[in-house]
Design brief:
With 267 residues, this protein is α+β, with helices and mostly antiparallel strands. The chain is built from 7 helices and 11 strands. Strand 5 and strand 6 form a beta hairpin.
Length: 267
């Protein structure tokens, strides 16, 4: 029986990765940003070498300047479930970064397309501009908890292990656990121009989905909002921690909106 491309994409969305974030209790940790960050030297293409709780492959981040106080960030990656099926594919997810204080430009705020909770803290923790960078992202999803992620970046698909170890120790010294890092494989990657399947997410994605379908599609839109991550597992994990209920299906679990209206599972 032939499996449709749409079905495979949906499987990829649900099973691909677990969210690239880790839970924490209380408020987001406050960590320092790179002092006097030179934004123009920082922007450009970075390869993700290690990332919190991720099983995606070939992940990159490409930063471009939109204005003096705003950047665009495009996250590109492949999903292991589609890789395992030998399907050439590419996913892009575009967000916006605000720079509230140019004197401390490393302290940014990120808005991913479908994150209804709004912006998250986005810190350029360290970089030498030419070799490596470290970023830290955090958003409080309730008054009790937050989700955080960190990534070690490189200008090339590989990075010297001594640099990786050093920046991990720096993160640990700033109070960030380094036990959640997973390595990102860049050994076999499909160029977007060569991809037979493109999964692109930007500011118009949610509007297009809602305009073309009824309210039942919102659970799919929520999955897409998380940058094509495993929303169901994330929500089930969240509900177990905070006592919310699900609708009984692990593939479409949803939070009780009335009880947790201020909660957003970030991408």
């Amino acid at each position: 029986m032939r499996t449709s491309g749409t079905a495979l994409v949906f499987v990829g969305l649900l099973v691909g990765i677990v969210g690239a974030h880790d839970w924490g209790w209380g408020s987001c940790p406050v960590i320092p940003a790179k002092a006097k960050l030179n934004v123009d030297k920082f922007i450009g293409l970075w390869y993700v070498i290690e990332l919190f709780d991720s099983s995606s492959t070939c992940q990159t981040l490409n930063y471009t300047r939109m204005s003096e106080t705003q950047l665009s960030v495009t996250k590109s990656r492949q999903f292991y479930i589609l890789d395992s099926l030998s399907i050439d594919h590419a996913n892009t997810y575009k967000g916006k970064l605000d720079i509230p204080n140019e004197d401390n430009a490393g302290k940014m705020r990120v808005k991913w397309p479908l994150n209804i909770a709004g912006k998250a803290d986005y810190t350029i923790f360290d970089t030498d501009y030419d070799t490596y960078a470290v970023i830290y992202e955090c958003q409080e999803v309730s008054t009790l908890a937050y989700r955080q992620s960190a990534a070690i970046l490189s200008r090339s698909p590989t990075l010297d292990s001594a640099i990786v170890d050093r920046v991990k120790n720096q993160l640990k010294g700033a109070g960030i656990s380094i036990s959640h890092f997973d390595k990102i494989d860049h050994s076999v990657c499909t160029q977007p121009s060569d991809s037979s399947m493109k999964i692109d997410i930007d500011d118009n994605t949610f509007k297009d989905i809602v305009d073309s379908a009824g309210s039942g599609i919102k659970s799919v839109a929520s999955t897409v909002a998380n940058g094509a991550t495993n929303l169901a597992d994330t929500v089930v994990d969240f509900t177990r921690r905070f006592g919310a209920s699900t609708d009984g299906s692990s593939a479409s679990a949803t939070l009780q909106e009335e009880k947790y209206a201020d909660v957003e599972i970030i991408s």
